[in-house]
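ugh ok so i messed up the first submission bc i forgot one of the chains. this is the corrected input, ALL of the components this time, i swear. 404 residues overall. if the numbers dont match what u have on ur side tell me asap before i send this to the collaborators (the ones from the other lab, u know who)
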Amino acid sequence: MGEDTDGGAPRRDGRSTDTAHRIREVALELFIRQGFSRTTLQDIADELGLTRAALYYHHPSKDHLIASLVQPAKDDIDGFLTHAETDHLSTRELLEGFFDLNYRHRMIFLALVRDPTGLGSVDAEGWVTQLAAQAQRLLAGDEPTTDDRLRALVAINGLSRCATVLPDVPHDELREHSVALAMEIVAGIRGHPGAEPGRQPR
Amino acid sequence: MGEDTDGGAPRRDGRSTDTAHRIREVALELFIRQGFSRTTLQDIADELGLTRAALYYHHPSKDHLIASLVQPAKDDIDGFLTHAETDHLSTRELLEGFFDLNYRHRMIFLALVRDPTGLGSVDAEGWVTQLAAQAQRLLAGDEPTTDDRLRALVAINGLSRCATVLPDVPHDELREHSVALAMEIVAGIRGHPGAEPGRQPR
DNA sequence: GTCTATACCCAGATAGAC
DNA sequence: GTCTATCTGGGTATAGAC
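and heres the new structure output, hopefully the right one now
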């Protein structure tokens, strides 16, 4: 988990021990351990030796807190798709990049899978559908057949799934096989954009 | 849990228009329209001209109410998988059956996707993972390679996704293409169980 | 057997003192 | 920046009217 953000923290000088930041750390940990809905603000406050009210000074609401944890992943993916669109990535680059994205943020995604309640705090519905549409257009073009749509959907969906679930598989192996499988699925799209001329249908 | 679907309803003769049943109807409608979390017991009671407490007479809690709506789908799927295991269904039968199941209950699944809050009411976590494991074993056998696991995961996951999302595609077309794609994915499993000897890899 | 009235408690959220 | 106090919404629970 990375650089992570910095929600509404006041000071931007080298200082690090922002309470806001510590709150996010503890919150993420608890959310992953026991899910969003079963983690109360009281739990978080207790863990930090604070009161609920103190949390509100740093984060306007529980929803916002959750959103601020998901936001980096969201931005990352959105940015990648935009970049993919403008820079005409090859299919392989697209799928690899998408896997890496999902893998990088797998902890949050895992938390969201285990307790999807958290999706309610972020836009989710709009986001996921729009994301799916965008990925579909990249993979299947502007006038996809039903089969094309299905392939794009299943490939993207599967890729995301493979990257988050399956913690016991080592990264390199997981990545290689996941992308290969996605490539195979997408290969069935008629004259799929970014196709590598020499590919074998199977 | 078990028989039910008929919360605490008193009469068990042929009668149908039990209050308990009307509650479920109204509840499902509201849940689909505005999500689980944003639908309060008050909303449901108001719609029926009752009080919250009256609901309590028929259903022990909101969680139970939600669970009773999801239960049929759950039982249906569990039953199918058990049946598939004991009766050694072919891969095609398995995938077709799984699609049909997901399609039949797509309204509830859609509601659960749109507001995953409801998943908290049912076991969800345990259920889904166990279900995935079971499906994987059916498709990939007892000692799957990583690639096998991925294929089973992506196929099942994709099938479920295709059946619920994509309301604009007519049923027959959707079913045909979804199953075909799943078959294609699963075909890559080495000597996959239930393989039809004469199949073409693509 | 079916429902109302009412109280209860928890967790999210706000106001204002320090 | 953190506290105490308080409000609110809503799920839970019981007693009792009919």
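quick check: Chain A has two domains: 1-60, 70-186. that seems consistent at least. Residues 70-186 of chain A form one domain.
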